[in-house]
Amino acid sequence: MIALLCCVVNAAEPVTLRIDPGQRFQNIRGFGASGAWWTNYVAEFPEENRRRILRLLFTKDEAA
After folding, report:
1. Which own/partner contact pairs does 24-30 have at CB distance under 8 Å and 24+ positions apart?
2. Which of 2, 12, 38, 43 has the smallest set of CB atoms within 10 Å of its CB?
3. Which own/partner pairs from 5-11 qualify as long-range (CB within 8 Å, at least 24 positions apart)?
4. Long-range contact pairs involving 36-44 (C-beta distance under 8 Å, separation at least 24)
5. Would you list the domain boundaries of the chain?
6. What phi, psi does 4 have (nearest 5°)?
7. Contact between 31 and 12 (Cβ < 8 Å)
8. How far apart (Å, rounded) are the C-alpha atoms in residues 38 and 40?
């Protein structure tokens, strides 16, 4: 068992958390992330770079 001592800002006293790696509540079968924000940055890239990104994403040409 792992015990952590945490202090919360303006807390009257420290809080102790105990993590028991043997106690499971869920199984995670993978982890992913969204890239929905990346288009904001790509819009500012030079046109040549934007076209290359489009070719990489939407064609089967690995040398794009």
Report:
1. none
2. 12
3. none
4. none
5. 37-64
6. -120, 140
7. no
8. 5
What DSSP string runs through 11-54?
Answer: -SS-EEEEE-TT--S----------TTHHHHHTTS-HHHHHHHH
Pairing label, strands 15-19, 2-6: antiparallel
The length of the chain, given as a count of residues? 64
pLDDT digits 0-9 by tens, 29-58:
888 888 888 888 888 999 999 999 999 989
Collect all residues with Cβ–Cβ distance below 8 Å to 41 and sequence separation of at least 6: none
Q: Which residue in this structure is represented by tokens 């500012």? A: 44
pLDDT of residue 33: 82
- Whole-model pTM: value is 0.41
Residue 31's Cα: distance from chain center in Å?
8
